[in-house]
Amino acid sequence: MIKHHVDILIDENSLAACVKQLGDNISTYYATLQKNSTHPLILIGLLRGSYMFMADLSRKITCPHTIDFMTASSYGSATMSSGDVKILKDLEEDIAGKHVLIIEDIIDSGNTLSKVTQILSLRQPASIEICTLLDKPARRETEVRAKWSGFTIEDQFVVGYGIDYAEHYRHLPYIGIVVPE
Ligand SMILES: O=P(O)(O)OC[C@H]1O[C@H](OP(=O)(O)OP(=O)(O)O)[C@H](O)[C@@H]1O
Ligand SMILES: Nc1nc2[nH]cnc2c(=O)[nH]1
Ligand SMILES: [Mg+2]
């Protein structure tokens, strides 16, 4: 790690308000879908970055749902996507016939989500959508569409609320920016 400090970009209250709003919008959407079909809803969190967002968001989604996790990693300890996305841990659950909502902390190059959606679409889900807390469109290498997105951010390296810098800072209750000194 280079010498740096962390400045707050999105504070705890703004995160909570955003998560509540996302939860309301997602609940309305799937409540309507579930009225006309029997397909269950499953939230899939991408480890490790999404763990905190997933925990908070699932508590704000009022329609019945189950949860599962998978690990797809491309960064290691680097700050640039390698583009080589590997599935390190697969789902426990079968997603055939289910409405799948992928929960992600950040879309940067888009490589992770593009690979994950590709893999999951082959398993006959009823639908697949993406909810991301943060979106950094300036860095996109592969097109990815998130139906729900919390904040669009500039091209800055962020940490906190699940997101790490060389495995540090995941526990911060806010989103911060790493500022080199
Ligand atoms: O759009 P991309 O350029 O693919 O980047 C986004 C992904 O990178 C980070 O995960 P990482 O692979 O570092 O693992 P982690 O979730 O365990 O921190 C982040 O949590 C996203 O999953
Ligand atoms: N910590 C961190 N990991 C990322 N992975 C993809 N984008 C980012 C980012 O801005 N910060
Ligand atoms: Mg991740």
Can you tell me about this structure?
With 181 residues, this protein is α/β, with parallel strands linked by helices. Helix content is 24%, strand content 31%. The protein is built from 3 helices and 9 strands, in the order βαβαβββαββββ. The protein has helices at 12-35, 51-58, 111-121; strands at residues 4-10, 41-47, 66-73, 86-89, 99-107, 127-135, 148-152, 158-159, 175-180. The strands form 2 sheets. Strands 4-3-2-5-6-7 form a 6-stranded mixed β-sheet, with helices on both faces. Strands 1-9-8 form a 3-stranded antiparallel β-sheet. The longest helix is centred in the first third of the chain and has 24 residues, at 12-35. The chain binds 1-O-pyrophosphono-5-O-phosphono-alpha-D-ribofuranose, guanine and magnesium ion.
Overall pLDDT confidence:
94
Q: Considering DSSP H and I runs of 4 or more, what fraction of the residues is helical? A: 10-25%
Please report the total strand number as a whole number.
Answer: 9
State which percent range the strand residues make up. 25-35%
Secondary-structure class: alpha/beta
Q: Which series of helices and strands comes N to C?
A: EHEHEEEHEEEE
Largest sheet descriptor: 6 strands, mixed
Strand order of the largest sheet: 4-3-2-5-6-7
Contiguous helical run count: 3
Low-confidence stretches: none
Distance between the termini: 12 Å
Cα shape: globular
> In angstroms, what is the radius of gyration?
16 Å
